[in-house]
Request: fold
Amino acid sequence: MADKVLMAMSGGIDSSVAAILLLEQGYELVGVTFRNHDFITTDSTDDEHFNADPLFDAEILAKKLGFEHHIIDVREMFKNTVINNFVDEYLHCRTPNPCVFCNLCIKWGFLLTVADKLGCKFIATGHYAQLALENDRYFLKKGVDAAKDQTYFLWALTQENLSRTIFPLGKLTKAEVRNIAAAHGYERLLKKGESQEICFVPDNDYRKFLEDNVQNIKELHVAGNFVDTFGKVLGQHRGLYNYTIGQRKGLGIALGQPAYVVALNLADNTVVLGNKDELSGQRLHAGKVNMMKYSHVTDGMEVMAKIRYRNHGGKAKLYVEDYGLRVEFEQPVDSITPGQSVVFYEDDDLVGGGVIM
Reply:
């Protein structure tokens, strides 16, 4: 009997093609789509096979391909975990990575619970990542398509998570995925745009999102001083939530030379501005560490460390500390941002990761 797989479906091209491939490989599929926030669209379509709402796109595709599909409302869970964490991090002057948190809590954490209820041995997603197993450790390898590799967002997944996951697209490029969709007659999928950076933040305007969702945010983050790295007052800022590490544009202050946000100080309500060099650093501290390829870190372990998704990474060494890890870079790196993820690689293998403190 074929293994039963719970296919996480967004209604987009990646998860749809992943479902097509698994069916061709002989798996028995059950589709599931989470409604994690209110879907808003101004689009319309007359296509008989697809609807403007991606939830129903996934349902219609599953029906066409002949497997059952479930839409599960997780809006309350999503709000109480991902969104509340997102808001809390910003209120504490950290810049969160909600996709990492969502993957751990919702896309794997709750999805595996659903899989158990529906009798599914595995779950599958449309992520561009590859799964490997060595020395009784599951770990991720970068997807073949370097431009689409998504392992950076998956560093927090546990051994239990990985042991039950299938990534059908890991060895494919985006172009190949598009060709598969076209070959199966799903031209409509080719016209769909890529999902936005943060799915629940309209137009990626996090400031407006915070203002809309935290009624007293302007009382919590009142105006204060811009200061330089020596503490000299340069002007007044509009409230700490309006700024992130590395920000240059939209500061609302003219200094006659380029200035960057190099620190946010909640204790004295100051935004520290500096030049490009003052934005750079060679050390960071990481907490909430999850090791993937190895069970533990040996002091001095050499890795390539990425501090942003589009960051190429830099050579670094890892050292164990009581709070987690100290990461020492070989060369200075720009915009080390508390709340963001630092992810460690050996070539294409994901070693582990943590949250920058």
User: Anything to note?
Assistant: The domain at 4-203 is CATH 3.40.50.620 (Rossmann fold). The chain has three domains: 4-203, 221-274, 280-356. Residues 39-52 have pLDDT under 50 and may be disordered.
